Amino acid sequence: MSFEHFILLLHLLGAGVLIGVALFSIALTVSQPLDQSRLLTIVLIRRFGTYSVGLLIITGIYLAWQHFGGWPTSVRFWTKMGLIVLDGVLAQVVIKQKIARAISGDNTAASSLPLWTSISALVILLIFTLGFLTTSGN
Predict the structure, then answer these.
(1) H-assigned helices in 31-106
(2) Cα(44)–Cα(98) distance, rounded to whole angstroms?
(3) CA dihedral 74, 14, 86, 61 (to 10 degrees)
(4) Could you tell me which of 32, 59, 27 has the C-alpha nearest to residue 46?
(5) Given pLDDT bands bounded at 50, 70 and 90, which one contains residue 134?
């Protein structure tokens, strides 16, 4: 296996983990009751999302450099990067804060989690779609 294929494999592994985290976050927040154990499970699985995004950024920069023959100038690529930042803000500021408040007993924060985890999942879907379109040449 070549080094580029290994990096691509790591990138796809990170993408799969991130999709899993997004889907489990939605599933856990929409099922009732959203109790302490469920909230703590969400905290645990979302940590894997953070690690997978780190892996995706590192491998993605390498793959983009190889694909574009240098620093990418594609509008789709930079739109994708902007969406990654947006999802990072959603995950690390909004959702993380709402989970912490829900753990402390804030029912309003808990009731808004399905909305925010769904928005995050939609942003992730858009990121993957743009990644596919950017590399497929469409």
Answers:
(1) 36-68, 75-89, 96-103
(2) 15
(3) -30
(4) 27
(5) confident
